[in-house]
Target: Phosphopantothenatecysteine ligase
Amino acid sequence: MENHINDKRYSLEDLPENVAKFYRSVPFPHDYATNFKSIKEFARQCQLSHSKTILITSGGTIVPIEKNMVRYLDNFSGGGRGAATAEYFLEHGYHVLFLYRKNSLQPFIRHLMLHDTNFFTFLSYNPEQHLAYVSDTYKEQVSNLFMKWKSYIDSGRLLRVHFETVGEYLYYLRASTIELSTLKRNMIIFAAAAVSDFYIPLDQMSEHKIQSKNEGLTINLDPVPKLLKLVVSEWAPDAYTVSFKLETDINILDAKCQTSLNSYHHQLVIGNLLSDYKNWVVFHTPSKPAMYIRKTEQQIKDHVDIEPMIGERLKDLHRIYCDHPPHTTTNH
Ligand code: PMT
Model:
């Protein structure tokens, strides 16, 4: 917290009561000071290099139900969408701040973590030399993926910060959007994380593991404030902000996307359906009819990623956004 003394942008006093209450009711992230410094330095480097930058949030947040956490509530998301999107934007010259759920999928090395190509099936181990070898068949593929991952990290183009709880996520979302806001229109916020809608404030949480006494458990959950509103209106008002809407009923998807656009006044909502989210998505913007991005039957059969198609369209929208300063008429 000492990082924010005298920085009005982080003052809880000026926030809506429910948001300030939320920040006071969840623990501060463990490694916050170190990660905050890295985020600040990353923002400085992006600004110096005039680089286009994307903040990608990825994976699901958890809600602990005990202070000494044994149990928690989780949200659906493996982090595939965020990781694949990070790959696309890194390969297209962007700096990427990857805010991801601990142990979820990572750009490039995600290919080694998938079930059908499990990394460990590539390896053999020589105990005398303490070395692991990759079989010849996969040597090139594995080293390419590792080298890309490592070189983007080493060159400072990819910064990774992880969260686990919804509290940690919202602390880092605030820090990332505020610090990167100096990039103005050069920044995209791509909020693909599946964020918990409810949480248990610290003062209502059991200290120790809740004991089962052969009876049911009733827990009261408070609503998590919707921080997208603050991101768009206060923390990074010039960024091109993209949120996601995940639904299970196709009949309400478009309406929910439109409601989200009308509530937050941001640039793009990407709607997707749980049953089919890897095969098609729909783009809702304030000024254009809904636009669907679909994989072909062949692409579905071949397990081709949809994220490069999403990335390509988004990159175009961002370019148009950057080319139109606020005082000119935009039609994106
Ligand atoms: O990771 P994968 O397994 O590949 O799955 C990807 C996905 C299906 C999870 C992804 O495509 C997706 O849809 N993510 C958003 C899920 C969702 O419905 O989020 P939400 O309704 O909780 O939030 C809507 C939007 O507001 C999201 O962009 C979220 O990041 C943002 N939000 C939500 C709550 C909150 N307190 N603050 C927020 O900013």
The two ends are 39 Å apart (CA to CA). Residues 136-154 form the longest helix (19 residues).
